[in-house]
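Late entry, written up from scratch paper. The run itself happened at the end of the previous shift, but nothing got recorded in the book at the time, so transcribing now.
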Amino acid sequence: MMRFSRILLLLLFALLLVGTGCKEERKVDVAAGLNPDKMATMTTKNISTLISDSGVIQYKIVAPLWKVYDQIDTPYWIFPEGLYLQKYDRAFNVISTVAADSARYFKDRKLWKLMGRVELTKAPKDLFQSAELFWDQKSNKIYSDSFIHIETATHVLEGIGFISNDKLTEYRVVKPMGIFPVNKDDLKEPPAASSPQSGGEDPQATVTVTPVATDTVEL
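Output as recorded:
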């Protein structure tokens, strides 16, 4: 009886080994389903942060949502729900502001693409509005191929296409549609949150309204 039980156990163990060997080995590659181009390496909500360069505070960024994609060939930040940015001088006075419905910043190229209702202000009360603007920090230029509306203390200027230095002190409208002298009291007041403090030292803006030939900047 003992010998029979031992033989039965050996047979059951052998069958178990055979059954296990017949099972197909299956590997699950979790990484295969991941696409780094569609995955943010950082997602932050309700941000309010200061950006500095060489230890000097340059900007303040406020946004409901900030996503960073820095593991791809062309790293960028995206602000899909809107962006508000303040630019400071060395005395920490607000000298200009940027507001847009959405924005994208190409980190390596130091290029901002502002989309939707884009609004720039410059001290003391100059206002620039467009549907799309590019801000190239490497070349210190702001430009657009879209309709542009400009309000200053002395005139309203409108047209298609816009090129400016990043201080908004020298700019031109590529295809002007009209320049109208106005009473400064009739101009739209910029929002209180974006009204710069006094103390800015930007010189008087130089405006060119004659149509000019311009090169297309490829992004």
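The longest helix spans residues 2-22.
(Scratch paper discarded after transcription.)
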